[in-house]
Amino acid sequence: MEQAPRDPERQLQPAPLEPLGHLDAGLQSAVGEEAEVARDESPGEGTMTENNFWLKKIEISVSEAEKRTGRNAMNMQETYTAYLIETRSVEHTDGQSVLTDSLWRRYSEFELLRNYLLVYYPHIVVPPLPEKRAEFVWHKLSADNMDPDFVERRRIGLENFLLRVASHPILCRDKIFYLFLTQEGNWKETVNETGFQLKADSRLKALNATFRVKNPDKRFTELKHYSDELQSVISHLLRVRARVADRLYGVYKVHGNYGRVFSEWSAIEKEMGDGLQSAGHHMDVYASSIDDILEDEEHYADQLKEYLFYAEALRAVCRKHELMQYDLEMAAQDLASKKQQCEELATGTVRMFSLKGMTTKLFGQETPEQREARVKVLEEQINEGEQQLKSKNLEGREFVKNAWADIERFKEQKNHDLKEALISYAVMQISMCKKGIQVWTNAKECFSKM
Amino acid sequence: MDMNSFSPMMPTSPLSMINQVKFEDEPDLKDLFITVDEPESHVTTIETFITYRIITKTSRGEFDSSEFEVRRRYQDFLWLKGKLEEAHPTLIIPPLPEKFIVKGMVERFNDDFIETRRKALQKFLNRIADHPTLTFNEDFKVFLTAQAWELSSHKKQGPGLLSRMGQTVRAVALSMRGVKSRPEEFMEMNNFIEIFSQKINLIDKISQRIYKEEREYSDEMREYGPIHLLWSASEEDLADTLKGVASCIDKCCKATEKRMSGLSEALLPVVHEYVLYSEMLMGVMKRRDQIQAELDSKVEALMYKKADADLLTEEIGKLEDKVECANNALKADWERWKHNMQNDIKSAFTETAEENIHYYEQCLATWESFLASQTDLHMEETSEDKPEAH
């Protein structure tokens, strides 16, 4: 498993509240016990040095899912699923874990947490949530959000999300995240009190910046293209995979029909009867083996889906950079124009069209006192502007530096995870082939004895 | 297809060769070899039809030559079948492929349909050649050896169409009667035929469906592999792994194609032939019942009409012989047919199982070699950086 790099200085945008204490603690992530299909990989381990809420090593798991009914904002009855989040602290010496916190959260609360993180850590590639609605379904899978298989896969996805956040060197220190895991009641209010929704950049502003920015960092432009390509290719892959799964399901299941017919036929045969009957049994085994095979494949698809959604997170970081860069360019432009105006007033030449210029022409020159007053105002504005530009420049450079560091971290993680996923796919295929060989070898024996 | 000189090794397929050798009474004396090939389209003002070239090689004395080459069309095969049924009403005549295309059986109407039909026609003729009785049938000989005009004139010699039609109507009426007085062993036989027919039809449908599903699976796989290649173009570290996966999927796709062609050669035609056989068998049962019914109606007539007693008794005597002959012929042929059926079915399914095993073995090897290459790489990489284990 990869080690997250240690860099306590790398926290540009501070979390809204101070951390509890400076303690040397380790953070460990593990897969929950109730997970039906164990995920062999844990998304990552991290070692934190300072500014950490955790006194000891902790384990996080989303261990259960429960159907609930309640009333929504419009006072209408609704059904939703709640997930149990358990946090355990692990004793160093004997490895035993003690349950420290346990609370229920629904999907919308996870969304709230993530939206908060997106606003406060725009330079971080924030881990994505599992899909809200089932997509890329093939015929046997249900597209229903209440379907138990979907709920189960979502449970695993939510756990994965929490583990990713917990193992991120910066995100894990966030107080709101800590409270998400420990404070059941009132958490929503606490998040909303941070006022993060107001701090969020408007979509329109971001879109505008994307189109108008003149000199974005080339690396971000390339990254944006990469994330578009990644999203497109993974979507395509998932779509075709779903169709392949559908077809494979068909091939296996039709063989099951042989079982029944062979059995009925064997009733009228003397010599062939036994062979037919037992061959039929093997056909049944073959047909039912596909269910497990495809269930495993579904987990592989989920691993790919996570990176499909990560592409969007990458784009978010690029957009923030474009916004900051555009902001900087506008500020610089504004400063330049003010300086120009100042110069013109001082020297008396008019090179730029200005309303003031027009009105003075129409209504007569202003007095020297008036002019001096204006120059002074402008000079002040220019000073301010220069300060602002300086700090914006600094901010921009810091952002680029920090964002790029996280992007490098993300790249390594992505390469590692996807490679593992692809290898696990090969392992699945191998297992499927071995099962196939066994069943057909048995069937062949039965046939040859007929 | 080795067309050179007389060669005993000219089977329809390796498997059927084995069948022929096994179930001939005197395997070493197979002396009639037939191939059907070279379909050709003929266009006249009235119609378009296809003829097939039929090559016969034989060492039999009653044939004027040791090698014959003729062209026949489907109509000619139909004629032959009719003559055989007429001459041997209670023998199990091999089935002919369908006159019209069965929906869903073949993908594209022309080439595949003609090829499937060609193979089935070849099987038909060879089955007749292997049959201890039918092989010596005169019409069969004419079919194999006569030139086109000779065949036409020979065809005209048989009983007219009208008389045959008349017979059919009478036959239907009689067969109802024959069913009631069927001896026990033929009741069993009929029961078998009914159930067999049901089951083989189902198996035919299932097998066709499997072929179709495999075809669609193969189509999707063909699109699936290249996407990984496309992806590898925008990756650095992952490029090799992705390319590896793409290549594996590609190879598995090819293995699927092979599996499908195995199915369509070893299983589908065999199962389908037995579907047609089961129809033939019902016809044979009917004809036997008719013959019996003829006897029964005369016997009944004797009970009520004392007047023609002598004539009737004579007729009954002849019919009793006829019935006995028919029953014995059927019994013997039935055993022979059942034996062949068991072996054909057994071979077909065994070969199918082998094809499937081979398919999975190929895919396994592909993925295992990919996995090995990936873990080798991983070993290299990890040994380069840190000493601690994963």
From TrEMBL, chain A:
Keywords: Acetylation, Endosome, Lipid-binding, Membrane, Protein transport, Transport. GO terms for biological process: endocytic recycling; positive regulation of autophagosome assembly; positive regulation of histamine secretion by mast cell; protein transport. Transmembrane segments: none annotated. PROSITE patterns: PX. SUPFAM superfamilies: PX domain. SMART domains: PX. Residues 1-49 are annotated as: Disordered. Residues 1-10 have a biased composition (Basic and acidic residues). It comes from the Eukaryota. It holds the Pfam family PX. It is a peripheral membrane protein. It is found in: Early endosome membrane. One of its GO terms (cellular component) is plasma membrane. Residues 61-187 form the PX domain. GO terms for molecular function: epidermal growth factor receptor binding; insulin receptor binding; leptin receptor binding; phosphatidylinositol-3-phosphate binding; transferrin receptor binding. Belongs to the sorting nexin family. Involved in the regulation of endocytosis and in several stages of intracellular trafficking. Plays a role in recycling endocytosed transferrin receptor and prevent its degradation. Involved in autophagosome assembly by regulating trafficking and recycling of phospholipid scramblase ATG9A. Heterodimer; heterodimerizes with SNX7 or SNX30. Interacts with WWC1/KIBRA. Identified in a complex with WWC1/KIBRA and dynein components DYNLL1 and DYNC1I2. Interacts with BIN1. This is Sorting nexin-4. The gene is SNX4.
From TrEMBL, chain B:
GO terms for molecular function: phosphatidylinositol binding. One of its GO terms (cellular component) is early endosome membrane. Its main location: membrane. Residues 30-151 form the PX domain. It is a peripheral membrane protein. GO terms for biological process: autophagy of mitochondrion; endocytic recycling; piecemeal microautophagy of the nucleus; protein transport; reticulophagy. InterPro entries: AH/BAR_dom_sf, BAR_SNX7, PX_dom, PX_dom_sf, PX_SNX7. It comes from the Eukaryota. Keywords: Protein transport, Transport. Pfam families: PX. Gene3D superfamilies: Arfaptin homology (AH) domain/BAR domain, Phox-like domain. It is found in: Early endosome membrane. Heterodimer; heterodimerizes with SNX4. Belongs to the sorting nexin family. This is Sorting nexin-7 isoform X3. It comes from Mustela putorius furo. The lineage of its organism: Eukaryota, Metazoa, Chordata, Craniata, Vertebrata.
